[in-house]
């Protein structure tokens, strides 16, 4: 068993790391959703009963919470758990080699698309940080929310690269 760990390929370590970080980020989203719910309910309560509102609720939820809720669990849901939408009506009847080739193509295309999302997420976060961009109603910086897009995209891209390596290995063995 100790020998197995020593001879495991390099990407197995990356896979274990991204699986753990993806799981942690997905769990963190539960807390973020709770905070989002508490903030929204408190804002509604104050508006309804006291005719007051929490300034910046929409901005904080839109720039921070929604970015976290959408991008942080992507890697966990789409690749680690394979809980994304898959329509296999046609592909399930194809030969294994052709199914692997199609999966290789779609995974590569997805990696390119999310690689661009990640790149522009980092670029947007850097631009917001370097210019000191803040929200309109409250003076909170925008870069943390944009960084969440980049972090979630990075995790997803790492997961997809590991899956791509597994698929290439399987493709060569078939």
Give me the oligomer status: single chain
Average residue-wise pLDDT = 85
Indicate the overall shape.
elongated
Share of residues in helices: over 70%
**Biggest sheet architecture:** none
Structural class: mainly alpha
The counted number of beta strands is 0
Q: For the terminal residues, how far apart are their CA atoms? A: 27 Å
Radius of gyration: 21 Å
Number of helices: 6
The number of domains is 1
Layout of strands and helices, then pairs:
Layout: H1 2-6, H2 10-50, H3 57-71, H4 74-80, H5 96-131, H6 143-173
Helix pairs in contact: 2-3, 2-4, 2-6, 3-6, 4-6, 5-6
Structure description:
There is one protein chain. The chain is 78% helix and 0% strand. The protein contains six helices and no strands. The chain starts with a helix and ends with a helix.
């Amino acid at each position: 068993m100790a020998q197995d760990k020593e001879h495991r390929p390099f990407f197995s370590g990356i896979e274990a790391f991204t699986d753990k970080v993806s799981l942690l980020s997905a769990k963190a989203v539960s807390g973020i959703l709770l905070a989002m719910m508490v903030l929204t309910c408190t804002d509604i309560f104050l508006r309804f009963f006291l005719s007051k509102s929490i300034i910046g609720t929409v901005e904080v939820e839109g720039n921070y919470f929604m970015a976290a809720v959408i991008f942080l669990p992507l890697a966990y849901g789409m690749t680690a758990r394979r809980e994304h939408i898959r329509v296999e009506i046609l592909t399930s009847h194809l030969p294994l080699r052709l199914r692997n080739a199609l999966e290789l193509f779609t995974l590569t295309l997805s990696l390119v698309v999310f690689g661009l999302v990640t790149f522009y997420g980092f670029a947007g976060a850097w631009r917001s940080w370097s210019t000191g961009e803040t929200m309109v109603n409250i003076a909170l910086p925008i870069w943390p929310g944009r960084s969440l897009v980049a972090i979630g995209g990075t995790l997803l891209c790492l997961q997809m690269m590991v899956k791509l390596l597994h698929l290439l290995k399987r493709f060569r063995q078939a």
